[in-house]
Amino acid sequence: MRAIQTVIAFFTFLAGTISIHAQVVAPGRDLSLLTEYVNTTKQDSIFVFYGSTGNLSAAHSTGNPSTFKWYRYNTDSLKFKLFAEESNLSQSLKESLAEGGYRVEITDNTDSTETYTCWLFTDDVTLNNIEIDNNCEFLELNPITTPSSYNIPYDRFAYFDLSRNPNRENNTYGKQYFDNITWTSSDSRIDVSQEKQLRLVIEEPAPLYNSSYTITIVNPFGRTLSLSTPEITAIATKADDLIQVDEDGSWKDWDSNGEYEALLGLRLESKSLNCDSIYWKMTTKKIEPLGDFNYVIWRDSSLIATRNDAYPDKNIMVPGYYTIYHYSVNTSSGCIDSIITDIKVDSSKLSADIIPNVFSPNGDGINDRFVFSDTDASIRSISSFSIKIFSRSGKLVYEYSGNPHDWEGWDGKTNIGTDAAEGVYYFIIEARGWDNRKFARGPYKGFLHLFRGK
Question: Burial level of 228, CB count in 10 A (0-12/13-18/19+)?
Answer without folding.
Answer: middle
